[in-house]
Amino acid sequence: MKVLVVNAGSSSLKYQLIDMTTESTLAKGLVERIGIDGTRLKQEVNGDKYVLEQPMKNHVVASQFMLDALTDKVHGVLSNMDEIAAVGHRVLHGGEKFTQSVIIDDEVIEAIKENIPLGPLHNPANLMGIMACHEVMPNTPMVAVFDTAFHQTMPPKAFLYGVPIDYYERLHVRRYGFHGTSHRYVSARAAEFLGKDINNLRIITCHLGNGSSIAAVHNGKCVDTSMGITPLEGLLMGTRSGSMDPAVLQYIMNNDGINIDEMLEILNKKSGLLGVSGVSSDMRDVDTAAESGNKNALVAQQILDMGIKKYIGAYAAVMGGVDVIVFTAGIGENGIELRERVMEDMSFLGAAIDKEKNKVKGKEADISADDSKVKVVVIPTNEELVIARDTLELVNP
Ligand code: ADP
Hints:
There is one protein chain. By secondary structure, the chain is an alpha/beta fold. The chain is globular, with a radius of gyration of 21 Å. Bound molecules: adenosine-5'-diphosphate. Adenosine-5'-diphosphate binds next to α10 and α12.
């Protein structure tokens, strides 16, 4: 049984074909610059790299080229597209309606549309991906997997903001949280990896990539997370500011004569590691600059380190302690020095890492010191696999 996982952006389509018998990836691809100059499809199958440069005016055309690439006699892996049992779509915002993945029907499409005001950049793009796949594979069942779903178990005291309750009741203003598929996967996988029962664990999952978020997972359920109504809240990220006093907005806007859209563009795209360091949004570049003495790069690194420490402390307090700390995503899986800095002086929590064991990149590892009461682990995330598993489970119960 083969499942296609699709993650559609406004001008891109990322896909992965997964063989569910072995849970292995058969093909991985990306169509970028859809509808603009220089549209390109890149696909990788067993080390074979296939690139097709070809105008594609919209996601429907791009989806057809994706199917053509997957069934290509030389570079493909399928003899025909009917081998695809189902398609799983990543959808950013499920609002309060979706607490788990669902089979896509007209009602679900309407509900994703209703959530566009909450996810104005991503939900329309995700919908375009869904409609495009539906057009080129009309008989293939499709499933939506939401980035927000795992966090729907948060209690009101965690998800409500301290603003008049009317904003929640009328406009659904609240914390939703993102990267839910990743937090769900790495918390479950960490428990499995350690041979423990997730229903009896207090886990803090640190998803640190271009976008970063931390979640408190108590007995398998999310009880708090750092991202908010949008992915802007929480930690300092590649280009996002993370949390700050909202009055800063008024001060900068009045002073510089910019409007709210321009301000949010700055907070989403020009802040974070990039804005503070002035070097790059990429952690590796910031690390290199900091090492060679760039003070702004160093302080950007320190803001992130301290932010992660603060969330770990806060979530341990919320759960009455912590049993497992998980590092995942690009920085979490590969950032040896960052993990070392973040876990320094955490003995008050009963948590310490072994510097030698910590020298791992991109693979599952227990990096805790022998006498650490808290297990500290690296678990590479695999959101595509979760999407594929949910898809298969729903279409083939
Ligand atoms: P996305 O959120 O786009 O999926 P990733 O999870 O791929 O992002 O994470 C990207 C981040 O991971 C970048 O900041 C990159 O610098 C960082 N990263 C990747 N490899 C390393 C490494 N070896 N050391 C430190 N950071 C790394």
